[in-house]
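[#protein-structures] MJ: dropping Cytosine-specific methyltransferase here for a structure pass
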Amino acid sequence: MYTLSKEKVRQHMNKHGISTQKELADQLGISKNQLSMLLSPNFNPIKTNAMRLCEVLDVELEEILMSEQIEFPFEADTLVEQSHDEDLEVNVDDFEGQDFIDIHNITANRKYSAIELFAGAGGLALGLEQAGFESKGLVEFDKYACKTLRKNRPDWNVIEKDIIEVTEQGIKNFVKDIGIGELDLLSGGYPCQAFSYAGKKMGLSDARGTMFYYYAQLLKQLLPKTFLAENVRGLISHDEGRTFALMLKVFSEIGYTVTWKVLRALDYDVAQKRERIVMIGIRNDLVEQYDLKYELPQPYGYQLTLKDVLQNVPESEGAKYPESKRTVLDLVPPGGYWRDLPDNIAMQYMGKSYYSGGGRTGMARRLSWEEPSLTLTCSPAQKQTERCHPDETRPFNVREYARIQSFPDDWVFDCSMNNAYKQIGNAVPVNMAKAIGLSIVNVLNQMK
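AK: finished. structure tokens for Cytosine-specific methyltransferase:
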């Protein structure tokens, strides 16, 4: 793998009177972000843009290559050093996906290999399996979630380890027969955590101690053909957008063409108003070699309601309201909330929240059969985010919760009731995961 020397490029820029990277990018006919990726330590430049760069600077490729070439595997410290590229200015809007594809007729040409980090109860992994991926390993620290994974897929390689330990020991010690660059997909949803910025330059070292840091390091260890990272919508505005911008920057510098979008589960056979941000990356050398472009899964054009998904649900245990709360919610009609209560009861039930104004439509909320569910949380009976059953005055039970998240009825949560709610509430809806998986399959199918 070859690497362009920024210093040598700058020397030749000076010879030709090119003073800025933006000016060079304009002459190349590419964006400044694309130029920064071209100069990234892990980008394979033996492709069209690099050849165009040689034409503009009137040099041979060898004249602007690093003296020492990068070797595999990459060390974690190297990743940290390389991420401090002050020349890369990230405009997150440049990475937002705008192109969609109908995924209904897409099928995998073969079984594609996948490793998942932060696997949880398997919503994402199950959806990817349905899309045509074969799991080679799932990293998850929570013992109850691991028990769920093993219960439902005894053949899966469930790695019940801390992500830090897996990173430090090397993923290849836990997953066999996957060479660097051979894995088809690395997937996972790391928690959204604040970074500690050391200075003006944004780099991976600012993310030390966060789960994104370890996701990025394992991405570097594996260099898969594609990756999928998913997170809460709030990531976009987290820390005034700096968190998200840094993630896009690091992914780009590792050597990926990245696309992101906020997707609605409601658009992909999920009866729930749940939104997730997805980031999909394709390794740059493959983008160049096969002229690849990622396209998002096109919304299906219809939306499911609770009436569609909660027919003939198997019996299961479920949480119950205390008598005081049940008495209040008995007064709320389907589709209603606290404003449908008598004023004196609403004041008593809501306390100080009554006087704070605003919508607060999640309080004393009873859902309707004719609407999708609001986003399910890890606890089915929180006062601020109530999701009362349309007919009965109770929270949804465990199997209803799973149906709303599009888990099949035979997916067993072998744990306590409260832990089952937590596992289901934290999961990526299975049908949404399948749709995203098929959009990635569409890319992999184009690689010969």
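MJ: nice. The chain has 17 helices and eleven strands.
AK: one more thing. The two ends are 20 Å apart (CA to CA).
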